Fold each of these.
Amino acid sequence: MEELIREAASIVYASRMTIALTGAGVSVESGIPDFRSAGGLWSRFDPAEYATIDAFRSNPEKVWDMLKEMEALVIKARPNKAHRGMGELEKMGFLHAIITQNVDNLHQAGGSKNVIEYHGNSSTLSCLGCGKRYRADEKREGEFPPRCECRQILKPDVVFFGEAIPPEPMNRSFQLASMAQALLVVGTSAVVSPANTIPGLAKRSGARIIEINKERTHLTSSLTDVFLQGEAGEVIETLVLEVKRLAGTGDTPA
Ligand code: OAD
Protein backbone atom coordinates (compact mmCIF):
# COMPACT_ATOMS: atom_id res chain seq x y z
CA MET A 1 0.00 0.00 0.00
CA GLU A 2 2.80 2.45 0.88
CA GLU A 3 4.29 1.99 -2.57
CA LEU A 4 0.90 2.63 -4.21
CA ILE A 5 0.35 5.76 -2.11
CA ARG A 6 3.75 7.04 -3.20
CA GLU A 7 2.88 6.35 -6.85
CA ALA A 8 -0.49 8.12 -6.53
CA ALA A 9 1.08 11.10 -4.75
CA SER A 10 3.74 11.50 -7.41
CA ILE A 11 1.02 11.52 -10.11
CA VAL A 12 -0.90 14.22 -8.23
CA TYR A 13 2.27 16.20 -7.54
CA ALA A 14 3.34 16.15 -11.20
CA SER A 15 -0.11 16.78 -12.70
CA ARG A 16 -0.93 20.30 -13.88
CA MET A 17 -4.64 19.63 -13.43
CA THR A 18 -6.10 17.06 -11.08
CA ILE A 19 -9.82 16.67 -10.58
CA ALA A 20 -11.90 14.24 -8.51
CA LEU A 21 -15.11 12.34 -9.07
CA THR A 22 -16.70 11.39 -5.76
CA GLY A 23 -19.68 9.33 -4.67
CA ALA A 24 -21.54 8.16 -1.60
CA GLY A 25 -18.55 6.18 -0.23
CA VAL A 26 -16.80 9.42 0.64
CA SER A 27 -19.55 10.32 3.12
CA VAL A 28 -19.98 6.87 4.72
CA GLU A 29 -17.47 7.77 7.46
CA SER A 30 -19.67 10.82 8.19
CA GLY A 31 -22.56 8.48 9.01
CA ILE A 32 -24.44 8.57 5.69
CA PRO A 33 -24.84 5.09 4.16
CA ASP A 34 -24.00 4.57 0.50
CA PHE A 35 -26.47 3.10 -2.01
CA ARG A 36 -25.16 -0.24 -3.25
CA SER A 37 -22.97 -1.74 -0.52
CA ALA A 38 -24.53 -4.40 1.73
CA GLY A 39 -26.90 -2.46 3.99
CA GLY A 40 -26.84 0.50 1.60
CA LEU A 41 -29.92 2.61 0.90
CA TRP A 42 -31.02 0.59 -2.13
CA SER A 43 -31.09 -2.64 -0.10
CA ARG A 44 -33.89 -1.07 1.96
CA PHE A 45 -35.63 1.11 -0.60
CA ASP A 46 -36.25 -0.05 -4.15
CA PRO A 47 -34.95 2.80 -6.33
CA ALA A 48 -37.77 2.17 -8.85
CA GLU A 49 -40.26 3.01 -6.08
CA TYR A 50 -38.31 5.74 -4.32
CA ALA A 51 -35.79 7.39 -6.62
CA THR A 52 -37.43 7.99 -9.97
CA ILE A 53 -39.15 11.21 -10.92
CA ASP A 54 -42.25 9.22 -11.88
CA ALA A 55 -42.35 7.67 -8.40
CA PHE A 56 -42.08 11.14 -6.87
CA ARG A 57 -44.83 12.54 -9.07
CA SER A 58 -47.21 9.65 -8.37
CA ASN A 59 -46.54 9.17 -4.66
CA PRO A 60 -44.51 12.02 -3.14
CA GLU A 61 -45.62 11.13 0.42
CA LYS A 62 -44.03 7.71 0.14
CA VAL A 63 -40.79 9.08 -1.35
CA TRP A 64 -40.64 11.69 1.43
CA ASP A 65 -40.51 8.89 4.05
CA MET A 66 -37.11 7.95 2.63
CA LEU A 67 -36.05 11.55 2.08
CA LYS A 68 -36.83 12.41 5.70
CA GLU A 69 -34.65 9.58 6.94
CA MET A 70 -31.76 10.70 4.72
CA GLU A 71 -32.26 14.31 5.70
CA ALA A 72 -31.96 13.45 9.39
CA LEU A 73 -28.56 11.83 8.72
CA VAL A 74 -27.33 14.62 6.45
CA ILE A 75 -28.25 17.37 8.95
CA LYS A 76 -26.07 15.89 11.65
CA ALA A 77 -23.23 14.75 9.38
CA ARG A 78 -19.88 16.51 9.60
CA PRO A 79 -17.08 16.38 7.02
CA ASN A 80 -14.66 13.51 7.59
CA LYS A 81 -10.95 13.11 6.91
CA ALA A 82 -11.60 12.47 3.21
CA HIS A 83 -13.57 15.70 2.72
CA ARG A 84 -11.06 17.70 4.74
CA GLY A 85 -8.07 16.15 2.99
CA MET A 86 -9.49 17.00 -0.40
CA GLY A 87 -10.15 20.56 0.80
CA GLU A 88 -6.52 20.76 1.84
CA LEU A 89 -5.32 19.45 -1.53
CA GLU A 90 -7.33 22.17 -3.26
CA LYS A 91 -5.89 24.83 -0.98
CA MET A 92 -2.36 23.66 -1.75
CA GLY A 93 -3.11 23.86 -5.47
CA PHE A 94 -3.10 20.12 -6.09
CA LEU A 95 -6.81 19.61 -6.74
CA HIS A 96 -8.53 21.78 -9.30
CA ALA A 97 -12.16 20.70 -8.85
CA ILE A 98 -14.40 18.03 -7.35
CA ILE A 99 -17.28 16.61 -9.35
CA THR A 100 -19.52 15.02 -6.76
CA GLN A 101 -22.58 12.85 -7.13
CA ASN A 102 -23.36 13.56 -3.47
CA VAL A 103 -26.01 16.05 -2.43
CA ASP A 104 -24.89 16.50 1.20
CA ASN A 105 -22.73 19.67 1.07
CA LEU A 106 -19.92 17.90 2.94
CA HIS A 107 -17.17 18.73 0.44
CA GLN A 108 -17.93 22.44 0.86
CA ALA A 109 -18.07 21.99 4.65
CA GLY A 110 -14.68 20.25 4.43
CA GLY A 111 -13.09 23.29 2.82
CA SER A 112 -13.45 22.63 -0.92
CA LYS A 113 -14.44 25.68 -2.94
CA ASN A 114 -14.63 24.34 -6.47
CA VAL A 115 -17.35 21.72 -6.16
CA ILE A 116 -19.52 20.70 -9.08
CA GLU A 117 -22.74 19.13 -7.85
CA TYR A 118 -23.64 16.66 -10.56
CA HIS A 119 -26.80 15.38 -8.87
CA GLY A 120 -27.87 18.63 -7.23
CA ASN A 121 -28.05 19.58 -3.55
CA SER A 122 -30.54 18.65 -0.86
CA SER A 123 -30.44 21.99 0.96
CA THR A 124 -33.10 23.56 -1.27
CA LEU A 125 -36.59 22.39 -2.28
CA SER A 126 -38.58 23.34 -5.37
CA CYS A 127 -42.21 23.20 -6.38
CA LEU A 128 -42.79 21.16 -9.52
CA GLY A 129 -46.02 23.11 -10.02
CA CYS A 130 -45.20 26.82 -9.75
CA GLY A 131 -41.39 26.63 -9.60
CA LYS A 132 -41.01 28.46 -6.25
CA ARG A 133 -37.90 27.53 -4.34
CA TYR A 134 -37.35 27.25 -0.56
CA ARG A 135 -34.47 26.56 1.81
CA ALA A 136 -34.94 23.06 3.20
CA ASP A 137 -34.24 24.20 6.76
CA GLU A 138 -37.03 26.78 6.67
CA LYS A 139 -39.52 23.98 5.88
CA ARG A 140 -38.17 21.42 8.37
CA GLU A 141 -40.26 22.32 11.38
CA GLY A 142 -43.54 22.74 9.50
CA GLU A 143 -45.97 20.29 7.94
CA PHE A 144 -44.76 16.96 6.54
CA PRO A 145 -44.24 16.43 3.66
CA PRO A 146 -43.28 20.06 3.08
CA ARG A 147 -45.58 21.98 0.76
CA CYS A 148 -45.33 25.04 -1.42
CA GLU A 149 -47.59 28.04 -0.74
CA CYS A 150 -49.54 26.75 -3.79
CA ARG A 151 -50.07 23.51 -1.72
CA GLN A 152 -48.09 21.17 -3.96
CA ILE A 153 -45.60 18.87 -2.19
CA LEU A 154 -42.05 20.18 -2.63
CA LYS A 155 -39.20 18.20 -4.16
CA PRO A 156 -35.55 18.48 -3.05
CA ASP A 157 -33.29 19.93 -5.74
CA VAL A 158 -31.57 16.61 -6.30
CA VAL A 159 -31.58 14.65 -9.53
CA PHE A 160 -33.98 11.70 -9.54
CA PHE A 161 -33.68 8.84 -12.00
CA GLY A 162 -35.44 9.92 -15.19
CA GLU A 163 -34.42 13.56 -14.73
CA ALA A 164 -31.75 15.29 -16.77
CA ILE A 165 -28.48 16.41 -15.24
CA PRO A 166 -28.53 20.24 -15.11
CA PRO A 167 -26.56 21.46 -18.16
CA GLU A 168 -24.02 23.58 -16.30
CA PRO A 169 -22.51 20.87 -14.07
CA MET A 170 -22.72 18.41 -16.92
CA ASN A 171 -20.84 20.64 -19.37
CA ARG A 172 -18.25 21.82 -16.85
CA SER A 173 -17.55 18.25 -15.78
CA PHE A 174 -17.00 17.02 -19.31
CA GLN A 175 -14.80 19.99 -20.07
CA LEU A 176 -12.68 19.41 -16.96
CA ALA A 177 -12.47 15.67 -17.60
CA SER A 178 -11.13 16.31 -21.09
CA MET A 179 -8.43 18.63 -19.73
CA ALA A 180 -7.33 16.84 -16.56
CA GLN A 181 -4.00 15.09 -16.27
CA ALA A 182 -5.12 13.09 -13.25
CA LEU A 183 -8.50 11.98 -11.92
CA LEU A 184 -9.16 10.78 -8.39
CA VAL A 185 -12.21 8.49 -8.33
CA VAL A 186 -13.32 8.28 -4.71
CA GLY A 187 -16.10 6.23 -3.11
CA THR A 188 -18.22 5.57 -6.16
CA SER A 189 -19.26 2.35 -7.85
CA ALA A 190 -19.35 4.33 -11.12
CA VAL A 191 -22.44 2.55 -12.40
CA VAL A 192 -24.77 5.50 -12.78
CA SER A 193 -24.78 7.28 -16.11
CA PRO A 194 -23.79 9.88 -17.23
CA ALA A 195 -21.48 10.55 -14.24
CA ASN A 196 -19.82 7.21 -14.89
CA THR A 197 -18.65 8.31 -18.34
CA ILE A 198 -16.30 10.85 -16.73
CA PRO A 199 -13.44 8.39 -15.97
CA GLY A 200 -13.45 7.06 -19.54
CA LEU A 201 -13.43 10.55 -21.00
CA ALA A 202 -10.58 11.61 -18.73
CA LYS A 203 -8.59 8.49 -19.56
CA ARG A 204 -9.05 8.95 -23.33
CA SER A 205 -7.90 12.53 -22.92
CA GLY A 206 -4.69 11.33 -21.28
CA ALA A 207 -5.44 11.46 -17.55
CA ARG A 208 -4.04 8.96 -15.07
CA ILE A 209 -6.81 7.40 -12.99
CA ILE A 210 -6.34 6.94 -9.24
CA GLU A 211 -9.21 4.99 -7.68
CA ILE A 212 -9.91 5.04 -3.94
CA ASN A 213 -12.66 2.60 -3.03
CA LYS A 214 -13.38 0.11 -0.30
CA GLU A 215 -14.15 -2.61 -2.85
CA ARG A 216 -13.03 -3.18 -6.40
CA THR A 217 -15.31 -1.76 -9.11
CA HIS A 218 -15.63 -2.33 -12.85
CA LEU A 219 -13.10 0.50 -13.28
CA THR A 220 -10.42 -1.23 -11.22
CA SER A 221 -9.40 -3.68 -13.90
CA SER A 222 -10.26 -1.52 -16.90
CA LEU A 223 -9.35 2.15 -16.52
CA THR A 224 -7.69 2.50 -13.13
CA ASP A 225 -3.93 3.10 -13.07
CA VAL A 226 -3.48 3.06 -9.29
CA PHE A 227 -6.03 1.37 -7.02
CA LEU A 228 -5.90 2.40 -3.37
CA GLN A 229 -8.23 0.00 -1.60
CA GLY A 230 -9.55 1.15 1.76
CA GLU A 231 -11.64 3.68 3.58
CA ALA A 232 -11.49 7.06 1.90
CA GLY A 233 -10.69 9.01 5.11
CA GLU A 234 -7.55 7.11 5.96
CA VAL A 235 -6.35 6.71 2.36
CA ILE A 236 -6.78 10.39 1.54
CA GLU A 237 -5.15 11.50 4.77
CA THR A 238 -2.08 9.41 3.91
CA LEU A 239 -2.10 10.60 0.30
CA VAL A 240 -2.20 14.25 1.39
CA LEU A 241 0.74 13.69 3.75
CA GLU A 242 2.74 12.17 0.92
CA VAL A 243 1.89 15.01 -1.50
CA LYS A 244 2.96 17.47 1.21
CA ARG A 245 6.22 15.60 1.64
CA LEU A 246 6.91 15.84 -2.09
CA ALA A 247 6.04 19.53 -2.02
CA GLY A 248 8.35 20.06 0.94
CA THR A 249 5.57 21.39 3.14
CA GLY A 250 4.87 18.34 5.28
CA ASP A 251 5.95 17.58 8.80
CA THR A 252 8.68 15.09 8.09
CA PRO A 253 9.93 12.98 10.97
CA ALA A 254 13.48 13.84 12.04
P1 OAD B 1 -22.66 3.50 -4.56
O1 OAD B 1 -23.36 3.07 -3.32
O2 OAD B 1 -23.10 2.92 -5.84
O3 OAD B 1 -21.09 3.22 -4.43
C1 OAD B 1 -20.37 3.55 -3.28
C2 OAD B 1 -18.92 3.12 -3.45
O4 OAD B 1 -18.18 3.57 -2.33
C3 OAD B 1 -18.73 1.60 -3.52
O5 OAD B 1 -17.73 1.33 -4.49
C4 OAD B 1 -18.24 1.26 -2.10
O6 OAD B 1 -17.38 0.11 -2.07
C5 OAD B 1 -17.45 2.48 -1.76
N1 OAD B 1 -17.32 2.77 -0.33
C6 OAD B 1 -18.18 2.53 0.69
N2 OAD B 1 -17.70 2.99 1.85
C7 OAD B 1 -16.50 3.54 1.57
C8 OAD B 1 -15.49 4.19 2.35
N3 OAD B 1 -15.62 4.39 3.67
N4 OAD B 1 -14.38 4.62 1.69
C9 OAD B 1 -14.23 4.42 0.36
N5 OAD B 1 -15.13 3.82 -0.41
C10 OAD B 1 -16.25 3.39 0.18
O7 OAD B 1 -22.75 5.11 -4.58
P2 OAD B 1 -22.48 6.10 -5.82
O8 OAD B 1 -21.49 5.55 -6.75
O9 OAD B 1 -22.26 7.45 -5.25
O10 OAD B 1 -27.93 8.83 -7.73
O11 OAD B 1 -23.90 6.08 -6.51
C11 OAD B 1 -24.11 6.90 -7.63
C12 OAD B 1 -25.52 7.37 -7.69
O12 OAD B 1 -26.43 6.28 -7.51
C13 OAD B 1 -25.93 8.32 -6.57
O13 OAD B 1 -25.54 9.66 -6.80
C14 OAD B 1 -27.42 8.18 -6.55
C15 OAD B 1 -27.52 6.67 -6.63
O14 OAD B 1 -28.67 6.16 -7.13
C16 OAD B 1 -29.22 9.11 -7.86
O15 OAD B 1 -30.04 8.82 -7.00
C17 OAD B 1 -29.58 9.78 -9.17
Amino acid sequence: MSLLSINNLSVSFQTDRGVVQAVDQVSFDVDAGETLAIVGESGSGKSVTALSILQLLGDAGTISDGQIVFDGQNLLVLPEKDIRNIRGDRIAMIFQEPMSSLNPVLTIGKQVAEPIWLHRKKTWNEALDQAEELIKKVSIPDARQRLDAYPHQFSGGMRQRVMIAMALACEPKLIIADEPTTALDVTVQAQILSLLKNLTTELNSALILITHDLGVVARYADRVAVMYGGRIVESATAAELYKHPKHPYTEGLMASIPTLDGEPGSRLQTIEGQPPDLLHMPAGCAFHPRCPYAAEICKHAKPLLKEVEANHFRACVGYESIS
Ligand code: SF4
Protein backbone atom coordinates (compact mmCIF):
# COMPACT_ATOMS: atom_id res chain seq x y z
CA MET A 1 0.00 0.00 0.00
CA SER A 2 1.28 3.47 -0.89
CA LEU A 3 1.95 6.01 1.84
CA LEU A 4 -0.32 8.51 0.09
CA SER A 5 -3.05 7.72 -2.42
CA ILE A 6 -5.02 10.54 -3.99
CA ASN A 7 -8.05 9.26 -5.87
CA ASN A 8 -10.19 11.38 -8.21
CA LEU A 9 -9.59 14.59 -6.28
CA SER A 10 -11.62 17.59 -7.46
CA VAL A 11 -11.31 21.04 -5.91
CA SER A 12 -13.26 24.16 -6.76
CA PHE A 13 -13.09 27.79 -5.62
CA GLN A 14 -15.89 30.28 -5.33
CA THR A 15 -14.71 33.59 -6.81
CA ASP A 16 -16.44 36.91 -7.55
CA ARG A 17 -16.54 35.91 -11.22
CA GLY A 18 -17.91 32.41 -10.65
CA VAL A 19 -16.82 28.92 -9.66
CA VAL A 20 -13.33 27.83 -10.72
CA GLN A 21 -12.53 24.14 -11.08
CA ALA A 22 -8.89 24.27 -9.98
CA VAL A 23 -8.31 20.51 -9.72
CA ASP A 24 -10.29 18.02 -11.76
CA GLN A 25 -10.27 14.27 -11.06
CA VAL A 26 -6.61 14.02 -10.08
CA SER A 27 -5.19 10.65 -8.92
CA PHE A 28 -1.67 9.63 -7.92
CA ASP A 29 0.25 7.60 -5.34
CA VAL A 30 3.42 8.37 -3.40
CA ASP A 31 5.45 5.64 -1.71
CA ALA A 32 7.59 5.97 1.44
CA GLY A 33 11.01 7.38 0.59
CA GLU A 34 9.94 8.44 -2.90
CA THR A 35 10.21 11.93 -4.42
CA LEU A 36 7.33 12.86 -6.68
CA ALA A 37 7.59 16.12 -8.61
CA ILE A 38 4.37 17.81 -9.70
CA VAL A 39 5.16 20.10 -12.61
CA GLY A 40 3.10 22.69 -14.44
CA GLU A 41 2.58 26.37 -15.21
CA SER A 42 0.87 28.78 -12.81
CA GLY A 43 -2.79 27.85 -12.47
CA SER A 44 -2.24 24.21 -13.47
CA GLY A 45 -3.55 23.06 -10.08
CA LYS A 46 -0.30 21.74 -8.63
CA SER A 47 -0.25 23.90 -5.49
CA VAL A 48 -3.98 23.48 -4.90
CA THR A 49 -3.51 19.69 -5.05
CA ALA A 50 -0.77 19.97 -2.43
CA LEU A 51 -2.77 22.31 -0.19
CA SER A 52 -5.74 19.93 -0.35
CA ILE A 53 -3.72 17.20 1.34
CA LEU A 54 -3.49 19.29 4.52
CA GLN A 55 -6.84 20.98 3.89
CA LEU A 56 -5.32 24.44 3.74
CA LEU A 57 -7.62 25.75 1.01
CA GLY A 58 -9.22 28.60 2.97
CA ASP A 59 -12.93 29.40 3.04
CA ALA A 60 -13.32 29.79 -0.72
CA GLY A 61 -11.95 26.33 -1.59
CA THR A 62 -14.05 23.16 -1.56
CA ILE A 63 -12.98 19.57 -2.10
CA SER A 64 -15.98 18.44 -4.11
CA ASP A 65 -14.93 14.87 -4.81
CA GLY A 66 -12.29 12.24 -4.15
CA GLN A 67 -10.25 10.63 -1.42
CA ILE A 68 -6.88 11.48 0.13
CA VAL A 69 -5.67 8.33 1.85
CA PHE A 70 -2.57 8.83 3.98
CA ASP A 71 -1.13 5.90 5.91
CA GLY A 72 -4.40 4.01 5.46
CA GLN A 73 -6.68 6.85 6.63
CA ASN A 74 -8.90 9.00 4.40
CA LEU A 75 -7.94 12.51 5.55
CA LEU A 76 -11.10 13.99 4.10
CA VAL A 77 -13.35 12.35 6.68
CA LEU A 78 -11.21 13.21 9.71
CA PRO A 79 -12.32 15.94 12.12
CA GLU A 80 -10.35 19.21 11.99
CA LYS A 81 -8.72 18.39 15.37
CA ASP A 82 -7.13 15.23 13.90
CA ILE A 83 -5.96 17.07 10.78
CA ARG A 84 -4.33 19.69 13.03
CA ASN A 85 -2.44 16.90 14.80
CA ILE A 86 -1.19 15.53 11.49
CA ARG A 87 -0.03 18.94 10.18
CA GLY A 88 3.60 19.59 11.06
CA ASP A 89 3.84 16.16 12.66
CA ARG A 90 3.29 13.31 10.18
CA ILE A 91 2.92 15.62 7.17
CA ALA A 92 4.96 18.84 6.93
CA MET A 93 4.84 21.61 4.37
CA ILE A 94 7.54 23.96 3.11
CA PHE A 95 6.23 27.05 1.37
CA GLN A 96 7.64 29.17 -1.43
CA GLU A 97 8.40 32.35 0.45
CA PRO A 98 9.79 31.67 3.95
CA MET A 99 9.48 35.32 5.01
CA SER A 100 5.72 35.11 4.81
CA SER A 101 5.62 31.68 6.47
CA LEU A 102 7.88 32.52 9.42
CA ASN A 103 6.47 34.66 12.20
CA PRO A 104 8.50 37.92 12.15
CA VAL A 105 8.04 38.61 15.87
CA LEU A 106 9.12 35.20 17.20
CA THR A 107 12.71 34.00 17.42
CA ILE A 108 13.87 31.21 15.14
CA GLY A 109 14.38 28.98 18.21
CA LYS A 110 10.76 29.38 19.31
CA GLN A 111 9.48 28.61 15.83
CA VAL A 112 11.60 25.49 15.32
CA ALA A 113 11.05 24.21 18.89
CA GLU A 114 7.28 24.71 18.91
CA PRO A 115 6.24 21.70 16.77
CA ILE A 116 8.55 19.45 18.83
CA TRP A 117 7.09 20.75 22.09
CA LEU A 118 3.54 20.51 20.75
CA HIS A 119 3.58 17.16 18.96
CA ARG A 120 6.33 15.28 20.76
CA LYS A 121 5.31 16.36 24.27
CA LYS A 122 8.87 17.41 25.24
CA THR A 123 9.70 20.02 27.86
CA TRP A 124 10.47 23.44 26.39
CA ASN A 125 14.20 23.07 27.13
CA GLU A 126 14.33 19.65 25.47
CA ALA A 127 12.51 21.07 22.44
CA LEU A 128 15.02 23.95 22.27
CA ASP A 129 17.96 21.50 22.42
CA GLN A 130 16.42 19.53 19.58
CA ALA A 131 15.84 22.77 17.64
CA GLU A 132 19.54 23.52 18.00
CA GLU A 133 20.40 20.09 16.55
CA LEU A 134 18.06 20.71 13.63
CA ILE A 135 19.58 24.13 12.93
CA LYS A 136 22.99 22.44 12.81
CA LYS A 137 21.63 19.73 10.53
CA VAL A 138 20.51 22.29 7.95
CA SER A 139 24.07 23.70 8.02
CA ILE A 140 23.41 27.00 9.75
CA PRO A 141 26.56 27.94 11.72
CA ASP A 142 26.52 29.10 15.39
CA ALA A 143 23.27 27.24 15.96
CA ARG A 144 22.85 28.11 19.67
CA GLN A 145 23.17 31.87 19.08
CA ARG A 146 20.97 31.66 15.99
CA LEU A 147 18.07 30.34 18.08
CA ASP A 148 17.70 33.85 19.53
CA ALA A 149 17.70 35.59 16.14
CA TYR A 150 14.62 36.80 14.27
CA PRO A 151 13.72 35.90 10.66
CA HIS A 152 14.68 39.35 9.30
CA GLN A 153 18.27 38.75 10.50
CA PHE A 154 18.60 35.78 8.10
CA SER A 155 19.19 35.75 4.33
CA GLY A 156 16.58 34.19 2.02
CA GLY A 157 18.55 30.94 1.75
CA MET A 158 19.01 30.73 5.53
CA ARG A 159 15.29 31.33 6.09
CA GLN A 160 14.49 28.47 3.73
CA ARG A 161 16.94 26.29 5.71
CA VAL A 162 14.98 27.21 8.85
CA MET A 163 11.76 26.18 7.11
CA ILE A 164 13.35 22.82 6.29
CA ALA A 165 14.44 22.45 9.94
CA MET A 166 10.85 23.16 11.05
CA ALA A 167 9.48 20.68 8.51
CA LEU A 168 11.85 17.95 9.70
CA ALA A 169 11.30 18.68 13.40
CA CYS A 170 8.88 15.80 13.98
CA GLU A 171 10.42 13.45 11.40
CA PRO A 172 7.33 13.49 9.16
CA LYS A 173 6.48 10.63 6.84
CA LEU A 174 5.57 13.07 4.08
CA ILE A 175 7.02 16.49 3.24
CA ILE A 176 5.34 18.74 0.71
CA ALA A 177 7.61 21.45 -0.69
CA ASP A 178 5.77 24.03 -2.79
CA GLU A 179 8.29 25.79 -5.07
CA PRO A 180 10.77 25.83 -2.15
CA THR A 181 13.53 27.64 -4.02
CA THR A 182 11.72 29.96 -6.44
CA ALA A 183 12.67 33.07 -4.46
CA LEU A 184 16.37 32.13 -4.24
CA ASP A 185 19.31 32.56 -6.59
CA VAL A 186 20.49 29.57 -8.60
CA THR A 187 23.47 28.45 -6.47
CA VAL A 188 21.47 28.69 -3.24
CA GLN A 189 18.61 26.79 -4.95
CA ALA A 190 20.91 23.84 -5.64
CA GLN A 191 22.21 23.80 -2.05
CA ILE A 192 18.71 23.91 -0.56
CA LEU A 193 17.31 21.21 -2.82
CA SER A 194 20.29 18.90 -2.21
CA LEU A 195 19.89 19.44 1.53
CA LEU A 196 16.17 18.70 1.37
CA LYS A 197 16.69 15.58 -0.72
CA ASN A 198 19.48 14.24 1.52
CA LEU A 199 17.57 14.83 4.74
CA THR A 200 14.36 13.25 3.43
CA THR A 201 16.37 10.24 2.21
CA GLU A 202 17.94 9.95 5.68
CA LEU A 203 14.48 9.89 7.28
CA ASN A 204 12.96 7.70 4.51
CA SER A 205 10.27 10.39 4.20
CA ALA A 206 8.32 10.80 0.99
CA LEU A 207 8.71 14.18 -0.71
CA ILE A 208 6.25 15.93 -3.00
CA LEU A 209 8.10 18.65 -4.86
CA ILE A 210 5.89 21.22 -6.55
CA THR A 211 7.80 23.04 -9.25
CA HIS A 212 7.67 24.65 -12.66
CA ASP A 213 11.38 23.94 -13.16
CA LEU A 214 12.14 20.82 -15.19
CA GLY A 215 15.82 21.05 -14.24
CA VAL A 216 14.84 20.47 -10.61
CA VAL A 217 12.75 17.48 -11.65
CA ALA A 218 15.59 15.83 -13.56
CA ARG A 219 17.96 16.07 -10.66
CA TYR A 220 15.83 15.32 -7.62
CA ALA A 221 12.62 13.46 -8.56
CA ASP A 222 11.99 9.75 -8.86
CA ARG A 223 8.66 10.23 -10.58
CA VAL A 224 6.91 13.15 -12.23
CA ALA A 225 3.28 14.15 -12.73
CA VAL A 226 2.74 16.92 -15.29
CA MET A 227 -0.39 19.02 -14.70
CA TYR A 228 -2.29 21.24 -17.10
CA GLY A 229 -5.63 22.94 -16.54
CA GLY A 230 -6.24 21.17 -13.23
CA ARG A 231 -5.59 17.65 -14.56
CA ILE A 232 -2.59 15.32 -14.73
CA VAL A 233 -1.74 14.97 -18.42
CA GLU A 234 1.33 12.75 -18.12
CA SER A 235 3.09 10.77 -15.43
CA ALA A 236 6.17 8.54 -15.51
CA THR A 237 9.54 8.03 -13.85
CA ALA A 238 11.73 11.13 -14.20
CA ALA A 239 14.24 9.27 -16.41
CA GLU A 240 11.52 7.96 -18.72
CA LEU A 241 9.74 11.32 -18.97
CA TYR A 242 12.96 13.05 -19.98
CA LYS A 243 13.91 10.45 -22.55
CA HIS A 244 10.46 9.81 -24.00
CA PRO A 245 7.88 12.52 -23.26
CA LYS A 246 4.58 11.29 -24.65
CA HIS A 247 2.24 14.23 -24.24
CA PRO A 248 2.38 17.29 -26.50
CA TYR A 249 2.42 19.64 -23.50
CA THR A 250 5.37 17.82 -21.87
CA GLU A 251 7.09 17.79 -25.24
CA GLY A 252 6.59 21.58 -25.44
CA LEU A 253 7.96 22.06 -21.91
CA MET A 254 11.04 20.00 -22.77
CA ALA A 255 11.63 21.86 -26.01
CA SER A 256 11.55 25.20 -24.18
CA ILE A 257 14.49 24.31 -21.89
CA PRO A 258 17.55 26.25 -23.11
CA THR A 259 20.49 24.01 -24.04
CA LEU A 260 24.20 24.77 -23.82
CA ASP A 261 24.86 23.43 -27.31
CA GLY A 262 22.09 25.49 -28.99
CA GLU A 263 22.88 27.66 -32.02
CA PRO A 264 24.23 31.04 -30.82
CA GLY A 265 21.59 33.71 -31.37
CA SER A 266 18.81 31.17 -31.99
CA ARG A 267 15.42 31.90 -30.47
CA LEU A 268 14.23 29.94 -27.45
CA GLN A 269 11.25 27.74 -28.19
CA THR A 270 8.01 28.52 -26.39
CA ILE A 271 4.58 26.94 -26.16
CA GLU A 272 2.30 29.19 -28.20
CA GLY A 273 -0.69 30.78 -26.47
CA GLN A 274 -1.61 31.22 -22.84
CA PRO A 275 -2.57 28.84 -20.04
CA PRO A 276 -6.36 28.38 -19.97
CA ASP A 277 -8.68 30.76 -18.13
CA LEU A 278 -10.04 28.45 -15.43
CA LEU A 279 -13.40 30.26 -15.54
CA HIS A 280 -13.73 29.52 -19.24
CA MET A 281 -12.01 26.20 -19.68
CA PRO A 282 -11.86 25.00 -23.31
CA ALA A 283 -14.14 22.02 -24.01
CA GLY A 284 -12.53 18.65 -24.68
CA CYS A 285 -8.78 18.68 -24.08
CA ALA A 286 -7.91 21.92 -22.26
CA PHE A 287 -4.60 22.07 -24.17
CA HIS A 288 -6.19 21.94 -27.64
CA PRO A 289 -5.98 25.71 -28.41
CA ARG A 290 -2.17 25.48 -27.98
CA CYS A 291 -1.47 21.98 -29.21
CA PRO A 292 0.34 21.53 -32.53
CA TYR A 293 -1.24 18.08 -32.91
CA ALA A 294 -4.83 19.07 -32.09
CA ALA A 295 -7.43 17.19 -34.14
CA GLU A 296 -11.19 17.66 -34.33
CA ILE A 297 -11.79 15.02 -31.64
CA CYS A 298 -9.64 17.02 -29.18
CA LYS A 299 -12.22 19.83 -29.12
CA HIS A 300 -14.93 17.52 -27.77
CA ALA A 301 -13.47 14.52 -25.93
CA LYS A 302 -11.90 14.99 -22.49
CA PRO A 303 -8.80 12.77 -22.45
CA LEU A 304 -8.42 10.31 -19.58
CA LEU A 305 -5.07 9.27 -18.13
CA LYS A 306 -4.16 5.87 -19.61
CA GLU A 307 -1.10 3.67 -19.28
CA VAL A 308 0.64 3.80 -22.65
CA GLU A 309 3.74 1.90 -21.54
CA ALA A 310 4.68 0.23 -18.26
CA ASN A 311 4.28 2.93 -15.57
CA HIS A 312 3.97 5.67 -18.17
CA PHE A 313 0.58 7.38 -18.27
CA ARG A 314 -0.76 9.97 -20.71
CA ALA A 315 -4.06 11.79 -21.20
CA CYS A 316 -4.40 12.49 -24.92
CA VAL A 317 -7.04 11.47 -27.42
CA GLY A 318 -5.43 12.87 -30.54
CA TYR A 319 -1.73 12.04 -30.23
CA GLU A 320 -1.95 8.28 -30.83
CA SER A 321 -1.75 8.62 -34.60
CA ILE A 322 1.50 10.60 -34.55
CA SER A 323 3.44 9.03 -31.63
FE1 SF4 B 1 -3.15 17.73 -28.26
FE2 SF4 B 1 -5.43 16.53 -28.75
FE3 SF4 B 1 -3.63 15.33 -27.24
FE4 SF4 B 1 -4.94 17.43 -26.31
S1 SF4 B 1 -5.82 15.46 -26.83
S2 SF4 B 1 -2.81 17.06 -26.13
S3 SF4 B 1 -5.16 18.66 -28.14
S4 SF4 B 1 -3.41 15.88 -29.41
